[in-house]
Amino acid sequence: MAQRTDPCERLLGDAVRTGVVPGAAWAAGDARTTLSAGAVGLLDPADPTGPTRPDTLFDVASLTKVLAVWAVTGTLVDAGKLDPAAPLGSYWPEAAGRPLAGVTAHHLLTHTAGLPLRANLRHLYGSDPQDVRDGVLSEPLRHRPGEAVAYTDRAALVLGYLLEHLARQPLSRLAGDRVWTPLGMADTRYGPLPAALRERCAPTEYDEESGARLRGTVHDFSARLLGGACGISGVFTTTADTGRFLRHLLDPVPGTFSAGWTAASLRVRTGRLEPPRGLFWHPAPGTGPADDVWAHFGFTGTGLWVSPARGRWAVLLTNRLYLTRDPGPLARVRDAFRALVFS
Q1: What gap in Å lies between CA 64 and CA 230, rounded to an integer?
Q2: What does the pLDDT read at residue 314?
Q3: Which residues neighbour 140 within 8 Å (Cβ) at sequence distance 6 or greater?
Q4: Model confidence over 225-255: pLDDT tens digits?
């Protein structure tokens, strides 16, 4: 645990006391080590005897897009098995002759493909995973690829489908074999979690269908519809494992995605379009180009940051959805946390 004088602990302790989050775990460091880490609050407010711990597992929601999809994409690009600039229809039979034919992996990674903004998978395509896949790959584009930046879960979903096609393996196995195992991320996995791990998993929202809070089952409904593992969401992890991942971006470990992939991703790849995006990463709110601080956030209350120029990384994991869907209070805490770590 961090020292009582740790400013991150004070900030996050205040967030717990003021009802922003029930609990939180964090870690921050440089290319060599972790400089600050700890946990505050309760794992589950219904049990006042159980604290959030540094080894608490969190549903990290859209951090899945970085920890799994972006990272696996890098390994395939590095191996020459995926050209980010090639139209999908030129090498992926499922995309040929469909609206996605002219879209590239680069468009997907920069959220400039023109895909619909909302997933709405069950409403549009039903509950059969193959029907969902067919529907997603056949959906008309909102605009021509490259014309505008608009964040959409569908970009990661389509890219996940593509990775599985190219590697002939499910995304969960690709992420484990190509990224998490080489980096020693032993606590990172797609759900649903086994019973033994659910005990140290932070619960999220109450689920009307099951009549209980989601705990060890992914919150994102689209991911649940697809069995819990897809490009949109589904990963559970700890601050320590995420720290191992982020240190790799600063000091690469052999055997997974390269420093070249990281460097290509952590720069603006959308020209003059707004908002600026790298490859899945985006400049951290409240920072400018000279700060070189890149971020990605998750709906459940999670965030990660890295700055090659400053040689620093940070991760903040919470289950704020236990208390509220209002993103504003936690966004302010996140910004203050980022300012502490990267000042």
Answers
A1: 9
A2: 98
A3: 99
A4: 999 999 999 999 999 999 999 999 999 999 9
Return the SS3 of 233. Answer: coil
pLDDT digits (tens, 9 = 90+) for 303-329: 999 999 999 999 999 999 999 999 999
Is the CB of residue 28 less than 8 Å from the CB of residue 307? no
Answer yes or no: is pLDDT of 1 > 70. Answer: no
- Tokens 């209002």 belong to 326
pLDDT digits (tens, 9 = 90+) for 205-220: 999 988 999 999 999 9
CB 261 within 8 A of CB 269: no
CA neighbor of 155 nearest in space, from 279, 302, 315, 303: 279
End-to-end Cα, the chain, rounded Å: 22
Looking at beta carbons, which pairs linking 291-297 to residues 24 or more positions away fall under 8 Å?
Answer: 291/342, 292/266, 293/338, 293/342, 294/266, 295/338, 296/62, 296/63, 296/65, 296/66, 297/62, 297/63, 297/334
